[in-house]
Amino acid sequence: MRILFLTISFFISYSAFSQKILGAVMTDENGITNNQQKAKFLVVEKQINDTAFEKLEYKFAGPMINRATFKDKALTLLNGDYADYHENGYLATTGRYSNNKKDGIWYIYNDTAKAITEYKFHLDSLVSKIDMDSMAKVNEKIKHDTTGEFEASYPGGIGKIRSLISSKFTLPQRTISLRKGGTVKIRFLIDTTGAVKGIAVLQSVEFAFDEEAMRVISLMKKWNPASDKGKKVIAYRIQPITVSL
Known about the structure:
three-stranded antiparallel beta sheet, alpha+beta, Histone H3 K4-specific methyltransferase SET7/9 N-terminal domain, 245 residues, disordered N terminus, eleven-stranded antiparallel beta sheet
């Protein structure tokens, strides 16, 4: 049955970068509730585009539990990115669905978001499984020539990144009300043109804080892309944002 999403008074009012927040419900052990004192969980629906909708499940005053992408607004057809989170807010599982079936590479992480197992699926059928620690030990024995490798960099360097975050980050009222400070870690991709893509939460604190952190990262429009021996390559970055309350 389709859940009707309700407006919550403490909800942040802006849309997260290009994604539209459609609404949310609070729930307890008996289902939907309007009593914030009883609420155990927060369920949020977002629209990414005309054919992609996201459902986020959070502990009411805590970190994310899971994030799923659907093809339909009724949230019945899993299609796209999926993630689960540990109790401490760190990423636990990532992968993708294709029409309700696991497809492609999935990773399992420990409680510090270190990848420990890689699975490869084809439409729900397991193709391969790799122990990441064993793979890392093998790679350590192979000498890798790093000559000509350059990491992605932001114009103005670390100082400019800190300045942008400091000037653009607005602490959400919900975060203040919950007194939920801490460190959100955002992982994102820098493509070969220097554009920021694939913004996602690596370590979650609470919904509004996570959303604001992702919004600020989306403002870092143009990077100098990473390169390997003169060829531009895709690179990943992790940016922590810490708030003390």
